[in-house]
Design a protein that fits this description.
Elements (H helix, E strand, L loop, with lengths): L6 E5 L3 H12 L4 E5 L11 H16 L3 E10 L10 H7 L1 H8 L7 E11 L6 E11 L15 E3 L2 E2 L5 H7 L1 H15 L7
Parallel strand pairs: 1-2, 1-3
Antiparallel strand pairs: 3-4, 4-5, 5-6, 6-7
Helix pairs in contact: 1-6
């Protein structure tokens, strides 16, 4: 058994996620290679469940080492909504819908969370999580990033206003990816890297 991590397959159709992880991986001599595949996304109560289920589905098809990533926006005053349903909510309500839900709410605290599942045939997925705290902006700002980035405010700037390298210094995806990289380094005696 061994991880071939010089090139790490990333199963997703989301180009924005790929660009972010490519940049993070490059700093650690890890090449991220996108495999555009839409695995069925189970509706579950946690991102960890969604990522694990997606990983177990995809391993049956690809039969080699890869990662998948799921992320969500958790708004405190909305009891964590949209959370694990973020992709669906973004497609149906979008940023305008979230801003409308928040229009009269003073508590705008929110957390962006990322879960990366590292998968290898015949093994349970290894899960890495990362999060960043911020708040929901009063209006969408910026054209950078993707998804809820223009409404997620971090230190007086939305993720939509940040260049990718700025966002990658503080993002939820960065936190999860760094945990994955640390795990790979710590297991180099067990796994071929």
């Amino acid at each position: 058994m061994g991880f071939n991590v010089r090139t790490l397959l990333f199963i997703t159709r989301n180009e924005g996620k790929v660009r972010e992880l490519e940049e993070l991986g490059r700093a650690h001599d890890i090449v991220i290679k996108q495999v555009g595949y839409d695995y069925p996304e189970v509706q579950a109560d946690t991102l960890e469940e969604v990522a694990r289920w997606g990983a177990l589905h995809a391993i049956e098809i690809f039969k080699r080492t890869f990662i998948i990533e799921d992320s969500g926006l958790f708004v405190e005053s909305l009891d964590g909504f949209p959370g694990p349903y973020s992709a669906y909510v973004y497609k149906t309500l979008g940023n305008k819908g979230i801003l409308k839900l928040m229009s009269r709410i003073k508590n705008r605290r929110a957390i962006f969370k990322s879960v990366i599942a590292l998968c290898e045939p015949s093994h349970e997925p290894v899960i890495f999580t990362g999060s960043v705290e911020g708040e929901i902006a009063k209006k969408a700002m910026g054209k950078e990033g993707f998804g809820f980035d223009p409404i997620f405010l971090y230190d007086d700037k939305t993720f939509g206003e940040m260049r990718r390298d700025e966002k990658n210094m503080v993002s939820h995806r960065r936190a999860a990816m760094l945990k994955l990289i640390r795990w790979i380094v710590e297991h180099k005696d067990v796994y071929t890297i």
